[in-house]
Amino acid sequence: MSRDKQAGKFAKPDNREYTLMLVPHQGEAVVKIRIPVKAIKYSVATVCVVTILMTGAIINYRHTVKTANADKSELKHLREVNSSQNEQIEQLAGKTAKLQQDMTRLNVLDSEIRKILNSDELKASRSGVTRPNLPGHDGQGGPVIQAQTSVIGSASDTLQDVANVREKILNSDELKASRSGAIRPTSSGHDGQGGPAIHAQASEIGSALDTLQNVAEMREKSLAELKLALIELNAQLAVTPSIWPNDDGVVTSRFGWRQSPWGMGSDFHPGIDIANDYGSPVVAAADGEVIYSGWIGGYGKAVEIRHGHGINTIYGHNSELAVSVGQYVKKGQLIAYMGSTGNSTGPHVHYEVRVNDTAVNPANFL
Ligand SMILES: [Zn+2]
């Protein structure tokens, strides 16, 4: 080996070389390999750089693997939590959907009941009860109006109950916590701790929904019963003589014993007399069939209507009749014009209600 020295040539490139001689022992030619010092320097530098890079890569790889393992574990946990929550959400969604259907049915029932409550029969009955100008009728309309008020009260109470329970559940701490919890990002250190709490909240919401469901079902049943009762009441009211045959007349004689208008002691008056202008309308007090339209002795020109359940009404002293026998009339329909035919002292309608052929006080129905 030889070594060239070129000291003092700072700017000159290093052209030194090593010669590697391979001397075979079998007398063959010597093989000389010349290696520039520059090449050795580059090689050493390259090896150093590669070593540093590889060391960095290995450290980075190990860190990455460690992080990936931690992430994998957390991901597995999150997937489990997610899956469990999805299941619970599906269950809650199912319950909510069922509840929604129940609420829809309740709303339909509610509007049906309100429709019945707003029917002409019920309105007429209510207005009839509050009419003030019949002496002695105090308290007689009571039961009917009381029943209606109670039905209206029950229906609105029922809906209020459902609304209250729903409000309570929606405002419950559990639901609030659950709602905020659902969108809260999960921290990496909470492994296994969030699950049970969420599960408990979901379970409480589920139980609250079950309660609400039961309440809704009970209310639906109750409202359905109310609806049936109202339909029956409505039908009954339609054929009950509950409105006045002349709506703005004045009661001049009531039912019962009275001083005779003919000045001959006292007599029993089997109806009520309502006076108004000659020719003012006389209307049917309830739905029914006209069974008589013509002259009846002292009643003059009269109409008799059969309403069913043994109830008939008679309207006397008319000037003109507007219906004929066999005709079906509705409550409030014009049947005659007021007059003073028969035994009468002035234009009025003698209104009589008979139950099984016995005259009863018409005020009992008004
Ligand atoms: Zn009379």
TrEMBL record:
Which Pfam families does the entry mention? Answer: Peptidase_M23
- Coiled-coil features, chain-numbered ranges: 75-102
Family annotation (CDD domains): M23_peptidase (cd12797)
> What are the protein's UniProt keywords?
Coiled coil, Membrane, Transmembrane, Transmembrane helix
| Record domain M23ase beta-sheet core: where | 268-362
In alphabetical order, the GO MF annotations are: metalloendopeptidase activity
TM helices/strands, residue ranges: 42-61
Under SUPFAM superfamilies, the record lists: Duplicated hybrid motif
- Region labeled Disordered — which residues? 176-197
This chain's protein is named Peptidase M23
Which classification does the entry list for the species? Bacteria, Bacillati, Bacillota, Negativicutes, Acetonemataceae
